[in-house]
Amino acid sequence: MRKISVIVIGGGASGLAASVMLARSGASVTLLERGERVGRKLSATGNGQGNVTNLAASKEHYFSDDPEKVGRILGRFSAEDTVEFLQSMGGIFLPDSRGRVYPAGRTASAVTDLFRREVMRLGVSVLTGVRAEKVTYAENSFRVTWKEGYMSADKVLLSAGGRAAEHFGTDGTAYTLAESFGHTVTPLTPVLVRLKTDPALVRGLRGIRVDALVRVLGEGGTLRASCRGDLLFTDGGVSGDAVFRASSYARKGDTLSVDLLPDVDEGRLRAAMERGGGDPLLGIVPNGLAKFLTRMGGDLAARVKDFRLPVTGTWGFSEAQVTRGGIPLGETDEDLQSLCRTGLFFAGEILNADGECGGYNLQWAFSSAHAAAEGILKC
């Protein structure tokens, strides 16, 4: 029986995972990566610690034009399946108290190294420095063309990412490859990203980090989301784990209501401040923040429990971890095969599905790779 030949465009998490899955099942796989090496973005995940999935992964943690399909695809390849898959290549992966799974050594680059070793062992042909410029179909095969040449195959998997983190080579140009077959692209926005606010409200606070509860308030004060974690003040805005998670829900014009002391109720806070006399916040919040809030005047206790920051924008795709939007899931079948061109498949961030911060997006990369690999092998 002749081997199925597959060209995988994009050497990120989904492309690497699909290449391994396909090669293990006997397919002849060529992986094209525009950068000088595969897995660069994967090596930076989880602040370099390698947060590869989350044990709580379910459709409720994702944004998409078809959340039900997201749920079905996650059900076919769960977080537990991801852990088993990664450990089949070597290494040990362990969850933390929030269900976030990391390699035991807490080094993201080691995850990439496992993939590199496995694709080499399986005989996957990896071509780096190759930017696919055109994909066409004729006479029962696909042709992928790049500046220096071309290659043909039975199937093509487009897993070239979105627009986020452009320094990793994901500049959004891969969408045109799908559009050439009649696909559409939903509006693209950066998520898991620092948020901008009125600079006057954070001036002088740069570098101060607090454990905070961040609420995203929409029009009329409607609560969109509530996220607990680190908040880091930056020039003209805020960052940190809580803010990155909140950015999945926040829009320009919304307001962040920040509780700077979430484990202390307002009554206890006021009692402590009364004992503080002329320096009421000393020892309660970081000194720089205490001085800043005191200078603002007004009801300090209320401000500590509800520090309002208007959202004026984000720091854009260059600093975002993930792209919202992309190829609609409604334009694919259950195996993420194109409804416009049989034999063309999608996986990862190029699709209109993104997850919250905390390993959910890599789980989507692996689950979508699995769905596409199954589809390629059976069609």
Description:
The protein has two domains: 5-189 and 324-378, FAD/NAD(P)-binding domain, CATH 3.50.50; 194-314, Translation factors (Elongation Factor Tu (Ef-tu), domain 3, Beta Barrel), CATH 2.40.30.10. A seven-stranded antiparallel beta sheet has the order 18-17-14-15-16-13-19. It has a five-stranded parallel beta sheet with strand order 7-2-1-11-21, with helices on one face. It has a three-stranded antiparallel beta sheet with strand order 3-6-5. The chain is elongated, with a radius of gyration of 23 Å. The chain is built from ten helices and 22 strands. The chain is 27% helix and 25% strand. The chain is of the alpha+beta class. α1 runs parallel beside α4 (108-122), α1 packs parallel to α10 (360-378) and α2 (67-76) crosses α10 (360-378). The model has no long low-confidence stretch (mean pLDDT 95).
Whole-number mean pLDDT = 95
Question: CATH homologous superfamily of the largest domain, by name?
Answer: FAD/NAD(P)-binding domain
Number of domains: 2
Principal-axes shape call: elongated
CATH overall fold name of the largest domain: FAD/NAD(P)-binding domain
Question: How much of the residues is beta strand, in percent?
Answer: 25-35%
Structural class designation = alpha+beta
Count the helices. How many?
10
Q: Kindly state the number of beta strands.
A: 22
Briefly say what this structure is:
With 379 residues, the chain is α+β, with helices and mostly antiparallel strands. The chain is built from 10 helices and 22 strands.
